Amino acid sequence: MSRLVKIPGMVDPHTHLRDLDWSHKATFTSETGAALAGGYWCVFDMPNTPPTTTDAPALATKQRALAAGAVCDYGIYFGAAQRDNTGEYGAVWPETCGLKIFNNATTGDLLIDTQPRRAAHYAAWPAQRLIAVHAEDETVADILALVRQTRKRTHFVHISTAQEIAWLRAAKAEGLPVTVGVCPHHLYLTEDDVPRLRGYGIMKPGLKTKADQAALWQALADGVVDVIESDHAPHSRAEKEGPVPPYGVPGLETTLPLLLTAVAAGRLTLAQVSALVAEQPRRIWGLACPPETYALVDLDAAYVIEAANLHSQCGWSPFEGLRVRGRVVETWLRGQRVYADGRILAQPGSGRDVFGGAV
Ligand code: DOR
Ligand code: ZN
User: Fold this and answer.
1) Based on the number of CB atoms within 10 Å of its own CB, is 186 exposed (0-12), middle (13-18) or buried (19 or more)?
2) Distance of CA 249 to the CA centre of its chain
3) Is residue 260 within 8 Å of residue 7, measured between CB atoms?
4) Which residues contact 291 (CB under 8 A, 6 or more apart)?
5) CA 154 – CA 270 distance, rounded (Å)
6) 3-class DSSP state for residue 324?
7) Has residue 180 got a pLDDT over 70?
């Protein structure tokens, strides 16, 4: 059996595409190619890759490099910096998909770890674009206090624990303007997998308990989770096998197959998956799907995830060896077939900035 369906306009609002000073890890061409192989129309790039996207010249550098290299459409986050860069916000916001604030330690040097400094960034960022926050544990409550004060739209990325879900469920009931993103690795892996995966199982937030994992699946069923985002964060094999593996795992090419496997198992419906990877992110960021832009998916194809079949430059996946059901057969962008039979067909530079950043 081979049931083919189209999923229009998939958006991953949380990726770290690298390139620039970190092109040894990945490039805009390689990772937007991985996005097409994963069925995506559009990905949003995070600001923590050096040179960090925290001032207008760095934003312009990234815009130029993405315009030249991207094969799928994209958006660019601006980053809150430890030095006070709030004076940049008024000019740059129209060209971004939002502001990213790293409120807990992770890859890069953008940590904002005091409440007064977080409050300054919240006050300065214009309300026209949302704020995406990395917040773990009690920091979620700290950020919710700022949302309550300022009413600024806030997307909580990679939520991973039962306690965080409980706070966000309550915040939604209270009517705060918050949305919730969850990553496939927190749905499909737990801390029990770390001894097997070693460096390849290290990311921020880290893998959690089975009880936390169950709370995420329950939150998916209840509609508390708005978006499934990959947190695609490629690092080289050598880095991951070194003494201090950096945080992050790739995910653009495995997110949809993993979710379709949940559909095959009766755990999610196809309509829920389509909402989580396409309709909800488009609604949250106010984007319209371009005509003839979709992933063509075979719901019945069963296979094992293998590094050799992936397009990300990093060349590995924490899900290698996992049997999945659901394959991206083709990806179409504005009427062009841009991915088919395992090959990227789009030319570098064909991707567009969906927020229209000047180049
Ligand atoms: O695991 C992670 N990797 N979490 C983050 O927050 C950043 C990312 C990266 O850039 O490597
Ligand atoms: Zn991230």
Assistant:
1) buried
2) 11
3) no
4) 334, 335
5) 27
6) strand
7) yes
Of all ligands present, the nearest one to the C-alpha of 107 is 1
Structural domains in the chain plus CATH codes: 4-344 (3.20.20.140)
Q: Give dist(CA 245, CA 201) in Å, integer.
A: 9
Q: Reply yes or no on whether the pLDDT at 210 is more than 90.
A: yes
Strand 131-134, strand 154-156: pairing: parallel
Number of Cβ within 10 Å of residue 238's Cβ equals 8
Rounded CA-CA distance 218/225 in Å is: 9
Distance (Å, whole) CA 131 – CA 351: 24
Specify the DSSP class assigned to residue 345.
-
Structure tokens at 231: 């947190």
338 SS3 class: strand
Q: Is 75 in the pocket of ligand 1 (CB under 6 A)?
A: no
Euclidean distance between CA atoms 176 and 153, whole angstroms = 8
Q: What is the pTM of this model?
A: 0.98
Q: Ligand 1 centroid to 233 CA: how many Å?
A: 6
Token code pair at residue 296: 């063509």
Atom of ligand 1 lying closest to residue 48 CA: 10
Structural contact between residues 113 and 119, judged by C-beta atoms closer than 8 angstroms: no
Mean pLDDT of 192-206: 98
For residue 313, name the pLDDT band (cuts at 50, 70, 90). very high
Q: Strand pairing of 227-228 and 178-182? A: parallel
Give the orientation angle of helix 115-124 with respect to helix 138-150, to 10 degrees: 40
Ligand 2 midpoint to CA 248 (Å)? 8
- The Cα 63–Cα 189 span in angstroms is 35
Measure the CA–CA gap between 273 and 49, rounded to whole angstroms. 30
CA 107 / ligand 1 centre spacing (Å): 5
- CA 97 vs CA 8, 42, 142, 357: distances in Å: 20, 12, 23, 10
Amino acid at 8: P
Per-residue confidence (pLDDT) for residue 305, from 0 to 100: 98
25 CB less than 6 Å from ligand 1?
Answer: no
Give the three-state DSSP class for 72.
coil
pLDDT, mean of residues 299-303: 98
Average pLDDT, stretch 20-24?
98
* Whether the CB of 160 sits within 6 Å of ligand 1: no
